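Record now logged for everyone:
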Amino acid sequence: MSRLALVRDPRFLQHITPETHPESPQRLVAIDNAIARLALDHDLKQLTPRSASEEEISLIHTADYIEHLYDDTERARKTDGLVQLDADTFVSAETYSTAKLAAGAGLTGVDAVAAGPVDRAFVAVRPPGHHALVDKAMGFCLFNNIAVAVRYAQKSAGFKKVFVIDWDVHHGNGTQWAFYDDPTVFFISFQQYPFWPYDSGWYLEDGKGEGKGSNMNIPLPAGTGDRGYLHAFDQLVKPVCLEFAPDLIMVSAGYDAHRDDPLGQQRITTAGFAMLTQRVADLASATGAKVVVFLEGGYNVKSLSDSATATMRVLNAASDPELGAIHASYLMPFAAGDAQHITDDRNVEMVNDRVREVRKHFSKYWQELR
């Protein structure tokens, strides 16, 4: 029996960006091709998403912003061109309906894990969402898919405490600000730092009001590899998640921290993403939480599709021997020519110091960090 639901739809290709734009429809085409090549489409429970309603989207976004995005899409339709919202975010003739479908795909994933029999879902969507603010598009993102899904999960699907992990190379600023004062949502974000967006992502941004201590940033220097990310996960994410005890874990899975990605300078391998995913699965098993993973960034179509399908394979594995074979399949290609199966950090002491700083700061909020 499949453990993992895959939510995808060819209509996500209808959101058009300029020809040389990194966030292109080819990203999802590459993932679809990798799924077919690995025959994963026979192993997963495949779901067709529904569109989110304006009411559901307004759980996060303002009515004015929703209306403006609709109007901008209509302008693009009438001119048969693109409308530019900021330096790198564009609207085409089908963007509004595609963005509603992307937001709705997250709700489809939430409903799937709430109802069973699957307990995990991967939501393969575009446009991505984690930079979208409540009243503004930003950084390729239009509606904040994961944030809308968090609120929907709490309001309509019976989940109470949601733990959100963001491992995109860029800080998930939109998601952070959406839940900054909410103690029922713990947001934890890995990001290259300093890096875009330059006005957020430092570890002193730790929440406010009742949400103080429920927002954790892990700002990692350029050149951080698998070992640094896994060390940060074990020292920070794992103990806090176990103490927080969520009933739902969501992941903003950007794969642009991969060593082959053109936009970031981190050094995670596909094997590293498989290991990060394994840690998420282990936390879900320990807490009894369901898991919903959302595609965010990743702009080298080979490393993106390899890493996204690695995440799917790990989440769908039904036994320890199967998991062992999956992890070995990603480690083995490095064995012949590289003594290290996973990447070290170029600034190992800086990484270790940063993890210690973050742990010390948050120890006043979380006993497991003391």
Q: What stands out?
A: Residues 95-115 form the longest helix (21 residues). Confidence is low (pLDDT under 50) at residues 335-340. The domain at 4-369 is CATH 3.40.800.20 (Arginase; Chain A).
